[in-house]
């Protein structure tokens, strides 16, 4: 019993926190301690779980929903990295969002933070899930619980975006993900994540039907549309109507990363790499992802709204991760996981910077941002670092992950992937350089008074920058854990 | 007394109905209705436990031995549904008093309770009887009571709706009787189990199929299986809220059980499903129901009508499982009978709260509800989400079994249809959720009536049930599985 409680803690802590926030919101002095206690306690609970388990050997069945399958949680290398990432960034984002929401006088703060916490709880649940059903359930709950955050503003535009958000995310998962899961269950009589792949281990090679597997792969990748592979990507730019902290944590970290994380889990632990080798849809999906990467980068160049630009860049970076997994070698899995972390840290920095610029000046459009680098030094430098990291410039974590993706694609002779990465890197430079140039080398369009940013915003941005550097110096923090995947 | 439980579950509500007509004191009658409701629950649970431990119970009504006398036959399947219906209708009764005080004229309330119990007795009768003609009698008893319930609402269109249902319901009953007559001519028996034995060595294939057709269509009218659903939306929309909640969560479900009983226990799996056309018709009608009714629901402006069309769509899910006709498909059907009963009770009770507090009839009036009545708003939101089949709610459980069942049969089209119909559900539910939470009320706030505790409590309880049984399926999914395994497929396996 106590074992079960420990495994449930990362899910329960944020949910209790959200209730606590609701109740105590009126007491000003308690706000910060309570908000910050959530991520810290969650991290502590992950640490407890990690102490209690050796990777992959232990998963705990909480209760059954259907005979023999139900909610069951466990910790394995990829989920360990993922959950640590989500919760540490939650800590940083809490600092940031409290400052942000205060400066911009956003309304219904209590609601905002409690839904925020629930969303994290769902993401943690998805991270810890040790069978596909649990993953699916938390995946869907994450969609539902982030809907109020997307529509937080409550105006017509956010309602429309909310509609798109629900329709695409729920729609694809019910249309593709659920049948795919049913088919896996039908084939193997089970839904557990098994090292080596559930389908590989349960089906003898005679039973494997290549066409069925190919279709299943497509169903999974399109069904998990949180990974925003084209053509089911349009919810992501739409979701940018949400307040910046939401975009930063959820649409750069939690939600989209749950998407790619689920794809990694499905490919590694449901299919198993062996069964996928030689499927024609693997190549097909590589082309689709390549197309997504290039197209969204081109679209990003044309954007004038900074958050929209970042959203399109996110879509392309997510496809990086998917394309990396589809190389289907152990080193590619490591590269993909590394990129998952690298992009999370870099993109959250960029979003924080964008939000800070908005808080200070009210600007959302790139064309207005000429010369702000002189007043907002920290923010602009952080933005530059984040952009450099995404482009893949050494000394920042983005370089490491890109390097490994390139390396593993060369190993198996996937020249197409190499080509895509090269082109998209050029495009990345293409859309980030003009912004950075504007920040530092152009003169202001008009004199406006810059609001001073609260210290918590600055602090959180600096932490992110430091993280980017640390992860470059010590990539083994991530990679050694992941290399335990069998 | 316990050995007479099969008779008591039917008789207690009917006795209550008669008493109520004699007493005609509104609050006292509420008490009587509650007492007969709770004693029905008691005996229904005893029945279920007995059926689980001893096996099928055969009870000779009035001491006349079957197959000549009327036999009540209680197995794990129908006793499960009896318990479900007894519990749901009791909870709705608890809720009923305050709601009826607002929605009905004072002198009609006693009649309403009486008809409610009469209908309940009739429905339980259909579930428990093992006699084809007795089933017809109970079908008529419950239908007659239903006509009265529908016509009692303050909206005068209710009269028309009741009349419409009266016509269609009578046609349905007639077709059913013709079917029973044909069977009687073929086999010389009215006892369903006797019939099923005798049908085994019948050569007359054509009259048998004719009787199957008559009975299926007759019951399908009661089920409101698309395209025979025309009576349902108006009936649900204009009946008093309590009546709607009751009918939506019980009446159609019982008719579906009767259909399943005929298909599996009387005619037998082999006869029915050797007939490819039958499967094709059932499957395609179910799919059309899921799509068509959901499409229509998207464009409704009357709140109750919207959910009435959604009921038609959901009934499509249930009959879909019958058409899939394997273990998982049938489990999906059975579990969805239970789940949909809970969901629709929750939704229509929540709507009843809205009618009570601020006379909300149209969807537009939902604007800003989240601020005015947060509890009810949450109830509607959660139970609507379970109509879509969001995991963590009961809707997901049903959908999972249906998907599994159709995958096993290789019916990819059906899987796809299930998926797409959830998207349609998402559209009409999304519209409601948006109105509730993100619109500001038009024309100022109507000062709402203060909600009585029991109405809120029952609504919340039902909503919690939609979530609880979506997580803990021991009482729904597992029991449904056992019921299907032991009763319906017992001989086939």
Please list the strands of the largest sheet of chain A in the order they lie side by side: 1-2
Structure annotation, total helices of chain A: 19
Mean pLDDT of chain B: 87
Shape of chain B: globular
Instruction: Tally the helices of chain B.
Output: 20
Written description of the protein model:
The complex is a heterodimer of chains A (486) and B (493). Chain A is mainly alpha-helical. Chain A is built from 19 helices and 2 strands. Chain A is globular. Chain B is mainly alpha-helical. Chain B has 20 helices and 2 strands. The two termini of chain B are 36 Å apart. The mean pLDDT of chain B is 87. Classes of the chains: A mainly alpha (486), B mainly alpha (493).
Key terms:
heterodimer, A: about 475 residues, mainly alpha, 19 helices, about 75% helix, globular, B: about 500 residues, two-stranded antiparallel ribbon, about 80% helix
Topology:
The complex is a heterodimer of chains A (486) and B (493).
Chain A lengths: L1 H23 L3 H25 L6 E8 L2 E6 L2 H27 L5 H20 L3 H19 L5 H33 L9 H5 L7 H14 L11 H4 L5 H28 L1 H4 L3 H23 L3 H20 L4 H32 L15 H15 L5 H15 L3 H27 L13 H19 L2 H7 L4
Antiparallel strand pairs in A: 1-2
Chain B lengths: L4 H19 L2 H28 L3 E4 L10 E4 L1 H28 L5 H20 L3 H20 L5 H31 L4 H8 L5 H19 L7 H8 L2 H26 L2 H5 L2 H23 L4 H22 L2 H32 L10 H4 L1 H15 L5 H15 L3 H27 L14 H19 L2 H15 L5
Antiparallel strand pairs in B: 1-2
Helix pairs in contact in B: 1-2, 1-4, 2-3, 2-4, 3-4, 3-10, 3-14, 3-19, 3-20, 4-5, 4-10, 5-6, 5-10, 6-8, 6-9, 8-10, 9-10, 9-13, 10-13, 10-14, 12-13, 12-18, 13-14, 13-17, 14-16, 14-17, 14-19, 14-20, 16-18, 16-19, 17-18, 17-19
In short:
The complex is a heterodimer of chains A (486) and B (493). Chain A is mainly alpha-helical and 486 residues long. Chain A has helices at 2-24, 28-52, 77-103, 109-128, 132-150, 156-188, 198-202, 210-223, 235-238, 244-271, 273-276, 280-302, 306-325, 330-361, 377-391, 397-411, 415-441, 455-473, 476-482; strands spanning 59-66, 69-74.
């Amino acid at each position: 019993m106590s074992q079960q409680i420990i495994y449930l803690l990362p899910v329960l802590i944020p949910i209790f926190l959200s209730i606590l926030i609701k109740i105590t919101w009126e007491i000003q002095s308690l706000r910060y301690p309570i908000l910050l206690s959530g991520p810290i306690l969650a991290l502590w609970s992950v640490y407890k779980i990690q102490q209690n388990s050796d990777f992959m050997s232990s998963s705990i069945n909480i209760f059954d929903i259907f005979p023999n399958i139900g909610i069951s949680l466990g910790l394995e290398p990829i989920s360990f990295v993922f959950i640590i990432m989500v919760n540490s960034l939650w800590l940083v984002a809490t600092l940031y969002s409290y400052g942000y929401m205060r400066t911009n006088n956003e309304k219904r703060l209590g609601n905002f933070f409690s839904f925020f916490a629930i969303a994290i709880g769902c993401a943690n649940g998805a991270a810890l899930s040790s069978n596909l059903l649990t993953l699916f359930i938390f995946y869907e709950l994450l969609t539902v619980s982030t809907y109020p955050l997307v529509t937080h503003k409550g105006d017509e535009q956010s309602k429309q975006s909310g509609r798109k958000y629900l329709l695409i995310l729920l729609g694809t998962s019910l249309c593709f993900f659920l049948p795919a899961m049913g088919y896996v269950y039908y084939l193997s009589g089970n839904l557990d994540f098994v090292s080596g792949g559930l389908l590989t281990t349960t089906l003898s090679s005679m039973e494997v039907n290549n066409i069925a597997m190919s279709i299943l792969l497509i169903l999974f990748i399109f069904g998990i549309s949180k990974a925003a592979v084209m053509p089911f990507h349009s919810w992501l730019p739409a979701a940018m109507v949400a307040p910046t902290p939401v975009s930063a944590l959820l649409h750069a970290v939690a939600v989209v990363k749950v998407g790619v994380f689920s794809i990694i889990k499905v490919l590694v632990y449901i299919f198993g790499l062996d069964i996928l080798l030689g499927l024609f849809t693997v190549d097909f999906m590589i082309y689709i992802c390549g197309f997504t990467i290039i197209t969204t980068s081109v679209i990003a160049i044309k954007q004038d709204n900074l958050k929209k630009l970042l959203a399109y860049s996110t879509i392309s970076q997510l496809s990086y991760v998917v394309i990396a997994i589809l190389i289907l070698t152990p080193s590619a899995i490591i590269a993909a996981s590394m990129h998952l972390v690298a992009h999370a840290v870099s993109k959250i920095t960029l979003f924080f910077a964008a939000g800070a610029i908005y808080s200070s000046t009210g600007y959302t459009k790139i064309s207005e941002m000429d010369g702000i680098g002189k007043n907002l030094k920290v923010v602009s430098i952080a933005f530059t670092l984040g952009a450099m990291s995404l482009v893949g410039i050494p000394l920042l974590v983005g370089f490491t992950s890109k390097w490994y993706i390139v390396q593993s694609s060369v190993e198996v002779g996937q020249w197409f992937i190499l080509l895509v990465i090269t082109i998209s890197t050029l495009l990345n430079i293409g859309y980030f350089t003009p912004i950075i140039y504007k920040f530092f080398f152009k003169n202001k369009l008009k004199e406006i008074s810059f609001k001073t940013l609260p210290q918590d915003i600055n602090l959180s941005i600096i932490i992110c920058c430091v993280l980017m550097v640390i992860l470059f110096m010590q990539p083994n923090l991530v990679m050694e854990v992941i290399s335990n995947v069998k | 007394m316990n050995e007479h439980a099969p008779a008591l579950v039917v008789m207690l509500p009917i006795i209550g109905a008669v008493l109520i007509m004699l007493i005609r004191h509104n609050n006292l009658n509420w008490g009587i209705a509650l007492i007969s409701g709770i004693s029905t629950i008691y005996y229904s649970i005893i029945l279920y436990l007995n059926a689980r431990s001893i096996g099928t119970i055969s009870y000779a009504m009035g001491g006349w031995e079957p197959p000549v006398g009327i036999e009540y036959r209680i197995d794990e399947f129908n006793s499960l549904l009896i318990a479900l219906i007894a519990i749901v209708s009791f909870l709705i009764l608890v809720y009923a008093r305050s709601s009826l005080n607002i929605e009905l004229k004072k002198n009609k309330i006693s009649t309403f309770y009486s008809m409610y119990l009469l209908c309940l007795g009739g429905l339980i009768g259909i579930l428990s009887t093992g006699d084809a003609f007795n089933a017809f009698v109970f079908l008529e008893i419950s239908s007659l009571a239903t006509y009265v319930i529908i016509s009692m609402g303050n909206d005068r269109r209710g009269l028309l709706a009741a009349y419409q249902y009266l016509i269609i319901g009578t046609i349905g009953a007639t077709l059913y009787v013709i079917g029973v007559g044909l069977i009687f001519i073929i086999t010389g028996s009215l006892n369903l189990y006797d019939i099923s034995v005798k049908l085994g060595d019948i050569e007359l294939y054509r009259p048998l199929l004719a009787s199957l057709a008559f009975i299926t269509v007759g019951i399908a009218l009661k089920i409101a299986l698309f395209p025979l659903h025309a009576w349902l939306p108006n009936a649900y929309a204009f009946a008093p809220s309590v009546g709607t909640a009751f009918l939506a969560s019980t009446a159609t479900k019982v008719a579906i059980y009767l259909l399943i009983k005929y298909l599996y226990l009387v005619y037998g799996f082999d006869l029915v499903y050797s007939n490819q056309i039958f499967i094709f018709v059932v499957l395609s009608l179910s799919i059309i129901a899921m799509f068509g009714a959901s499409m229509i629901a998207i464009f409704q402006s009357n709140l109750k009508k919207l959910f009435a069309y959604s009921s038609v769509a959901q009934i499509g899910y249930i009959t879909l499982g019958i058409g899939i006709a394997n273990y998982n498909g049938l489990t999906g059907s059975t579990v969805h009978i239970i789940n949909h009963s809970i969901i629709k009770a929750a939704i229509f009770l929540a709507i009843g709260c809205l009618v009570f507090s601020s006379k909300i009839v149209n969807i537009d009036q939902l604007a800003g509800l989240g601020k005015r009545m947060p509890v009810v708003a949450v109830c509607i939101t959660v139970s609507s989400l379970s109509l879509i089949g969001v995991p963590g709610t009961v809707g997901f459980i049903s959908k999972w079994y249906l998907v599994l069942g159709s995958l096993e049969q290789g019916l990819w089209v059906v899987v796809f249809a299930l998926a797409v119909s959830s998207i349609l559900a998402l559209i009409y539910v999304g519209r409601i959720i948006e109105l509730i939470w993100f619109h500001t009320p038009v024309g100022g706030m109507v000062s709402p009536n203060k909600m009585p505790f029991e109405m809120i409590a029952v609504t919340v309880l039902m909503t919690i049930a939609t979530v609880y049984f979506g997580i803990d399926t021991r009482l729904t999914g597992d029991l449904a599985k056992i019921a299907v395994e032991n009763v319906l497929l017992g001989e086939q396996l």
